[in-house]
Structures are given as structure tokens and as C-alpha cells.
Design goal:
By secondary structure, the chain is an alpha/beta fold. The protein is built from 18 helices and 25 strands. The longest helix has 23 residues, at 426-448. The termini are close together. The structure holds fructose -6-phosphate. Fructose -6-phosphate is lined by residues 299-302, 346-348, 351, 354, 398-399, 483, 487, 603-604.
């Protein structure tokens, strides 16, 4: 939920840390702070609000230290304020933390009884006090860390400075992401790779239960029992430009435009060019044969991708499929089945509810598969099998390219299951793949046609409420379109299955309630036309998203968005583009913070 970053080497640490925080600001932005090892001791500067406030404060002070840590916060315990901003200090220890310490209150009560004074309302401050209380006795940092982590429950990525060790940074990872960037006589760490790419491509993905001592010369790795372990760097094939805005005014717009490329990267290695067969080296073949049903679990946009995937898996592969919201799944009675494959979808791979649902499922000795975008993330390492979407870093808080690449993976999985289960033959498989390969060009076309979407946004952005309707595959798409609109433009938008409108929402329809109807080609096209008529009969305003060849819907409304027509299953990958763009342009016209909408964070590592 928060972003942490740090450096140790021969350069001045503070500019490197600020640059890293800038790239991590998408993870939280209600306060920020930095601590560096200075001659006179560790100096901490913190500021409430966005990173620019911290930068402003830094301009009035001098930080010369070559070792330091930084933090950008998304508040969980304690309101956004300077005193609650990280880093937190106790004795000679200074810490930054991403995650949540579930048992912090009992630890805090114990420490208060022993005479500790707490400055903040955060859960993090207990870590600093625990470290200091153990260190005071042993004067051994590693030992203090080992004792501290044994007391913590929850999820944590922690970076620790000790005033007595001027060049060392200690790192701990448990269920919150943390990566090390290995340089020459200098080393870095961060919550996510984009913060490091400007410095190095040599990345170590820490695992749950890792403790690292980072110095300019190198690093040592231990487990929570203090035993030495080996962690080796990998060369990461990501460029800095993939993590920068590249001329676009917002990351979100850049990421919307990256969808054709992201889609190609996701499917490329999974289709044999000569035979057009699907390959998933990540999953043993017997899974495709053995599995008799699917259970998908996810949150937010990833959940919507799962709802779309259900149509593929049921209709193409003939596999009964359930889709559930992770925060619901983890607290209800579940009937685990050894012939069911449990699929967990998560862009970040660190969503707390999805991770908890995955752990719960694994405890029941069934097969689990993760579909993730972030390499080395908790969900991807926890699952039995992982398929990466290869969408590249998604920085804008609103998920866009992750969604379309998740759909691509779910489609390919359905083809593979369908083929193994003989629900489709080789000719059908090949025809589906032909359609799939047409998608990137068609996406480009949708992106080029954005002037129409801009005009519609201009016409509609001042409305306070929207209804999104769709049937079949277009219903989850309506859910996703409405989510995009509300999260970045703060316009209230509700999505309904078009057939449900008559059961209640129709009462809302009047001239102040624009209705965006997704009615691309499907076997429910005519029924949706009837719904459009029902809206118009009540003075509702209709924006219709349709397939290019549809000559019927334009008879009912002038506000039309057209997308190419390729295949009934795959057209959702095209319709999503104008939905994302419409939300984007409404938000820009309203002047909201598109990439960092209020109250949100990119990865939700709290319940
Ligand atoms: C919406 C959005 C969120 C995420 C949700 C799950 O644009 O980004 O709804 O989809 O928080 O996140 P992941 O996919 O990282 O598990």
C-alpha cells in the first residue's frame, strides 16, 4: 500500500531516494518521508501530502548522507499527518514499512507498560521500538531483527537504519513486495522495479521470510531463523521508458495506449507460430486433463476480468466456472474440490484479500494458479503455478492494460482447456487464434478513433450519475466501465445487467441519468435494443457502444461509439478501450487527479 525505497553507496542518497519515491508515488501519496545517515546521526525529514511537499521541505535543509531510506504513505493506522508519516524512530533505529502489523496494539501496550513513548498512531512505530529494545540488550542488529520479526503478525516489507552502522540498510520481507537493485559498489532497494530501472536491471526478488543486510559492497541474506540463504540477481528485461510517461500527460493514458503492445507481449510466447497451438509451459499438462471445473477469485478490475473469463471457460472449454470477490470468498463456507482449479487474478500480486484467499485455498490441498503482472509478487510466488501477463509496469492507479492482458490469458487458457477436453477441435482452435491475432490492430484502430470519445466526454462530464448496461459478456464490461468512471472522475456510476433494469434501476431513469449501453454483436443484441427503447421512453439519454456493422442501434441514438467486429468473445478487448478513454476524458475535464485518484492506492495490501 505504501512505497519504500533506499540507497547505499558513494553518491548522495537523498536525490536517488526522492527520484525513487516519485516512481512509487502511485502506491500511496498522503505523506512522504526520508531518512539519511549523516555525520551527526540519522536525519529524518517528513511531510504530509504529496511528494512535492517533501521536496519543498528538503530544499530548506542539507542531506549529505550516502545511505538512506524513503517512504510514500497510504494511511492505514493513523490519519495522514506529519507525525504519522514514515520514517519512524526509536533509539538508534529508524524504519520505513509497507504493509500492516495486525498485532501492533498488543505489542504497543506491552511496550508502553515498559516505558516506551510513542509519537505516532501508526502500527509501524512498534517495529522501531521493538528493534531498539532488543538492540539495547545485545548491541547486535541482526539478533534484534530476528527477535522483532518473530513478534510481528501481518504483512511487512521493512527497511531499517541503525545509527551505529553508517553504511548498512537491513531489509525484511514478509507478504509485501521488496526488490533489490544490484549496482557496482552501490545497492538499491524498492517496493517495485520501476523505482530501480534508472540505476540497474540486476534485480533480486526477495521472498517471504527473507532478511537482507545491504551495504555498498554487497548483500547478505538470512531467513527468519538467522540461517544464511542464497539470493541471486536476475537480469530484468524492462526498460525505463516502460515505467515513464513517454510524452503522455498521464500514466493512465499511456497505459491505455500500450494495450496493443501489452497484448502482443502476453500472447506472443504462448502461441506456437507454425501450428497455432497454445503453450503454457508454466502449467503441467495433466492439469488441463484432470481439472473439471474452475473457481476464479479476485478483486476490483481483476474480478471483472474473471467474470469475462467465465464466459470463455464455460462456453469454449465447457468447464463450469465460479467467480468470486476475494474478500467475500475468504470469510464464507467453501467446498474445496480436488478436481477444481482455483485461479487467483491480480495485477499487483499483492492484494491482501486475494493473497489471503489463496493461502486459505492452498491449505485445502487443491491446485492453485495465479495470473499476475508483477514479477516475484507474493501471489505469484505463493500459487502452485503462475502465468505472468507481461503487460509491463502499470503505474496509473486505475487498471487498464492489466485488464486486457488478464482477459487474453483467460482466453488462451480456455482454448487450451477446450482443446484438451475436446470441447473444440484443431480447426476451431486455429480459427480462434486467427481472431485473437487480429486484436492488436483492431485495438490500434479504437485508440485512433478517440476524438469521438472526447466529444462525448465533453457533452456528458458534468452529469452526476451514470448507468452502464450490458448483457452477457457486455455486463462485466459495463461493471468495469462504471468502475473506471467512478474511480477517476468521481462521477457516480452503476452497472446493471440490461435485463435487470426493469427490476428496479429503471426508476432512476430521467433526463439527468445518461445510460451507457454496451451492445456489441451478440445473441442478445435485439434484447438490448429493447432496453435502449425502455430508457428512451423515459426521457433517458443513451450512449451506445456498438459493433461497426450494427445498422440498427444508430436509429435510436446519435451518441454512438463504434468498435471493430472480430469475434463475439474477443470484441470485449476492443470495447474496453472507449470505456477507459471515456472515463479518462471525463476525469481530465473535471480536473481530477487521474493517476492518483483520492483515497485510492495501486496495490491494496490491507483488508
Ligand atoms: C481499479 C483497480 C482496482 C484493482 C483491485 C485489485 O482500476 O485497479 O479495482 O483491480 O484493487 O488489484 P490487483 O489486480 O492488483 O489485485
Amino acid at each position: 500500500m505504501c512505497g519504500i525505497v533506499g540507497y547505499t553507496g558513494s553518491k548522495k542518497a537523498s536525490p536517488i531516494i526522492i527520484e525513487g519515491l516519485r516512481r512509487l508515488e502511485y502506491r500511496g501519496y498522503d505523506s512522504a518521508g526520508i531518512a539519511t545517515q549523516e555525520k551527526e546521526g540519522i536525519k529524518i525529514i517528513r511531510s504530509v501530502g504529496k511528494l512535492n511537499n517533501l521536496i519543498e521541505k528538503l530544499s530548506q535543509t542539507t542531506l549529505l548522507g550516502n545511505t538512506g531510506i524513503g517512504h510514500t504513505r497510504w494511511a492505514t493506522h493513523g490519519k495522514p499527518s506529519e507525525v504519522n508519516a514514515h520514517p519512524h524512530k526509536a533509539g538508534k533505529f529508524v524504519v520505513v514499512h509497507n504493509g500492516i502489523i495486525e498485532n501492533y496494539l498488543s505489542i504497543k501496550n506491552k511496550l508502553v507498560k515498559r516505558g516506551c513513548n510513542f509519537e505516532s498512531e501508526t502500527d509501524t512505530e512498534v517495529i522501531a521500538h521493538l528493534l531498539w529494545s532488543y538492540y539495547e540488550k545485545s548491541q547486535n542488529t541482526k539478533e534484534a531483527i530476528l527477535k522483532t520479526v518473530k513478534e510481528l503478525r501481518g504483512s511487512f516489507a521493512i527497511a531499517i537504519l541503525n545509527e551505529d552502522e553508517k553504511e548498512s540498510i537491513y531489509l525484511v520481507r514478509y507478504e509485501s513486495p521488496l526488490v533489490i537493485g544490484v549496482g557496482e559498489n552501490e545497492n538499491y532497494f524498492a517496493s517495485d522495479i520501476p523505482a530501480l530501472l534508472v540505476h540497474t536491471n540486476n534485480i533480486i526478488f526477495l521472498k517471504d521470510g527473507d532478511i537482507i543486510k545491504l551495504t555498498p559492497e554487497g548483500y547478505e541474506a538470512f531467513d527468519f531463523n538467522g540461517k544464511k540463504i542464497i539470493r541471486l540477481p536476475e537480469k530484468i528485461n524492462l526498460s525505463l521508458s516502460q515505467a515513464e510517461k513517454g510524452g503522455y500527460p498521464h500514466f493512465m493514458l499511456k497505459e491505455i495506449h500500450e494495450q496493443p503492445e501489452a497484448f502482443i507481449n502476453t500472447v506472443r510466447t504462448r502461441i506456437k507460430p507454425d501450428t497455432k497451438e497454445v503453450v503454457f509451459d508454466e502449467i503441467p499438462r495433466d492439469i488441463f486433463k484432470k481439472v473439471e471445473s474452475i473457481h476464479i477469485i479476485a478483486c476490483g478490475t481483476s474480478y471483472h476480468a474473471g467474470l469475462i473469463g467465465r464466459f470463455f471457460l464455460e462456453e469454449i472449454a465447457g468447464l463450469p466456472t465460479l467467480v468470486e470477490i476475494a474478500s467475500e470468498f475468504r470469510y464464507k463456507k467453501n467446498f474445496f474440490n480436488s478436481k477444481t482449479l482455483y485461479i487467483f487474478i491480480s495485477q499487483s500480486g499483492s492484494t491482501a484479500d486475494t493473497l489471503a484467499a489463496l493461502k486459505l485455498t492452498k491449505n485445502n490441498k487443491v491446485s492453485t494458479l495465479a495470473i499476475c503482472n508483477v514479477l516475484g509478487s507474493s501471489i505469484s510466488t505463493e500459487a502452485d503455478y503462475t502465468i505472468y501477463t507481461h503487460a509491463g509496469p502499470e503505474i496509473g492507479v486505475a487498471s487498464t492494460k492489466a485488464f486486457s492482458t488478464q482477459i487474453a490469458v483467460l482466453f488462451l487458457l480456455s482454448l487450451q482447456f477446450g482443446f484438451y477436453k475436446k470441447a473444440i477441435n484443431i480447426n476451431q482452435l486455429s480459427a480462434f487464434i486467427d481472431s485473437l491475432l487480429k486484436i492488436p490492430k483492431a485495438m490500434e484502430k479504437c485508440l485512433k478513433d478517440s476524438s469521438k470519445i472526447k466529444q462525448l466526454a465533453q457533452k456528458y462530464y458534468h452529469y452526476n450519475n451514470f448507468l452502464y448496461l450490458g448483457r452477457g459478456l457486455n455486463y462485466p464490461l459495463a461493471l468495469e466501465g462504471a468502475l473506471k468512471l467512478k474511480e477517476i472522475s468521481y462521477i457516480h456510476a452503476e452497472a446493471y445487467s440490461a435485463g435487470e433494469m426493469k427490476h428496479g434501476p429503471i426508476a432512476l431513469i430521467d433526463e439527468n441519468m445518461p445510460v451507457l449501453v454496451i451492445n456489441t454483436k451478440s445473441n442478445q443484441h435485439e434484447k438490448t435494443i429493447s432496453n435502449i427503447q425502455e430508457v428512451l421512453a423515459r426521457n433517458g439519454k443513451v450512449i451506445a457502444l456498438i459493433s461497426e456493422k450494427d445498422k440498427v442501434t444508430p436509429k435510436y441514438t446519435k451518441d454512438i461509439i463504434e468498435v471493430p467486429q472480430i469475434n463475439n468473445y474477443l470484441d470485449c478487448l476492443l470495447s474496453i478501450i472507449p470505456l477507459q478513454l471515456f472515463a479518462y476524458y471525463c476525469a481530465v475535464l473535471k480536473g481530477t487527479d487521474v493517476d492518483q485518484p483520492r483515497n485510492l492506492a495501486k496495490s491494496v495490501t490491507v483488508e
